[in-house]
Amino acid sequence: MKNTSQQILIGLGSNLDAPICQINNAINSIQTIQTTSLVKQSSFYESLPQGPQDQGNFINSVILVESALSAPSLLAQLKNIEQLQGRIKTRHWGERCIDLDILFYGQSEIQIQQPDLTIPHPQALLRDFVVIPALEIVPDWKLPDGTTLNRYRGQCLQHQLRKIQAKSP
Question: Is the pTM of this model over 0.85?
Answer without folding.
Answer: yes
